UniProtKB/TrEMBL annotation:
GO terms for molecular function: chromatin binding; transcription coactivator activity; zinc ion binding. Residues 499-595 form the SWIRM domain. This is Transcriptional adapter 2. Signal peptide: none annotated. It holds the Pfam family Myb_DNA-binding. Keywords: Metal-binding, Nucleus, Transcription, Transcription regulation, Zinc, Zinc-finger. Residues 270-302, 317-352, 483-504 are annotated as: Disordered. Residues 24-81 form the ZZ-type domain. PANTHER family: TRANSCRIPTIONAL ADAPTER 2-ALPHA, TRANSCRIPTIONAL ADAPTOR 2 ADA2 -RELATED. It is found in: Nucleus. GO terms for biological process: chromatin remodeling; regulation of transcription by RNA polymerase II. Residues 83-135 form the SANT domain. Residues 88-135 form the HTH myb-type domain.
Amino acid sequence: MTVSHRKPRPSQSNQERSAVAEPGVRYHCDVCGADITLTVRIRCAGGCKDFDLCGTCFCTGSEIGQHKAWHDYRVIEQHCTPVFCPDWGVDEELLLIDGCQIYGVGNWMDIADHIGNRTKEEVEQHFMDVYIEGRNGLPSGDERAARAVEEWREAHPLDPSFCGEEPLPIVGPDPDFTTDKSAETFQRERRERIERLRAAQAAFQVPKPGKPLVSGPTTHSELAGFMPGRLEFDHEYEQDAEQPVKDMEFGRVYSFGGDLMPTEMEALGTGATQGKPRMESSGRGGPKQVATPPEEPEEETFTDALEGEPMAVDEATPAPAAAASTSAPAPPAENEDAKAEEATDDRAPDWDEDPLDLELKLAVLDIYNDHLDRRAFKKRFLFERNIIDYRRLVASERRRPKEERDLLARIKHFATLQTAGDFEELFHNLCYEEALKKTIRQLQQYRRMGITTFAEAARYDHELAERTKRQLEAAEGHLSLHAASSTGRSRHRERSQSVAEKGPDDEFAFASAPSIQLLTRDEQQLCSALHILPQPFLVLKAALLTYSYAHHRALTLQHCEQLFAIDPRKLAHVYDFFRDKGYLQAVNMASTSRAGAFSAPASDHAA
């Protein structure tokens, strides 16, 4: 018999990768090599080990190797009857047990490959439900499992001091499970399940690998100094908070159980603290005690002295003779170091902490804890509001109008005092308030203009926009005409500057000025562009045309500048306007023919 196992390959395409909707162990005929996994096979029982034949080779009496046609045989067919639960057949149960023996319980991926047509999750869930908890997928199985757990708890009560996970019994499969499902129905359901599994695998698309997060110091694609793998910053908030406490040491504090603490000699031993400098105490804790180390051989004392680590010795105890006679006088530098070490070792390894020093150190620790609390609050605020997603935050702010961005910049400091939802609600309410204020100001403007309905307001806004557009066009047109005239470009530049100097802030209420109804539409635009009130314009118009009519000739710009003491630039615009409209020519013709009083062209009067 040839048995092959389906093994997953490390790198395959979406169509070629190892699929769970495939049989696990495959059987092949030992004579012709045909695949007999899903058919009836004949196994030799006459001494040949694992020798299988297909139906065709068995009927023809094929012989190969030690196998003979007259050997005993067994007919092996597919066992597709549920035995422990409704959706697992006997063949799958046998393959599950075989896979657990080969690969070990817990290696569900290899066991699923061994069974075939099953996923890792299905295999694990079936093993836990059937072989551990004793369920069979029916309500009766759930009742059996619950009853077994209750009996176990009654027989094995837990200790009240037990804090771990409660141990539960291994119930095992239900041997009394029966089903009324026929083999044909079970096979049809299995085929449908395999078809659904294959369809899901065919529609599966391998997701594109995302951008890997960089966790190196001070390197991040969006936020400099942030390490996403550790959720830390290279430069923390209040970076120097550890400086005051990094070298702090405490002596024996009796108010906090210091009398129960072992001494340094008892905790570390005699050789661990010899010659080790410690932080100096304030000296207010009482007289210093001299440490008396245990007696050691003279050779060790001499070795310690050579190594520059002298031991603390009682002053009344004389130095050993061997050490005194053998040691050479130390150089001046070594003498100074020895004196410094003796001054340090003159103090007890465990001193009594002074109450004032203790209060000062505890106050420093309280300040340090406040720094840590603020640092943790800042980091928690950043992570909860997802502020580390800098690109998304900047993009969302850019999509807001300028008024909302300015308002958000003014109230950002309130975000730390509220939750994310409360702050968002506050921001929306403030935006709504600003919109209401803007609407109120607009309505007040309408009321001042005598507008009482929204239809009139819409008509007013439309006419205002049209009037502003015509004024700009008229101003630009008159400036261009005057630039092409014989007066020269320098005068045109001066007029343009004078008109440009008048900004929108200088615009007066021209629409409500008196005598405006006496002007034509073009004259109104000219007066609005030059900021001339209607009455002065009418006086200038009457004087200019009357003088021209009386003298039987059209006036020139130079004559006008001599007659009228007004701004020459505005006078030039008015003169060009009268000339372009034909007023001066009409007056000249009327004075020549004595036709009578002057009348303005009818086409220029307002309707």
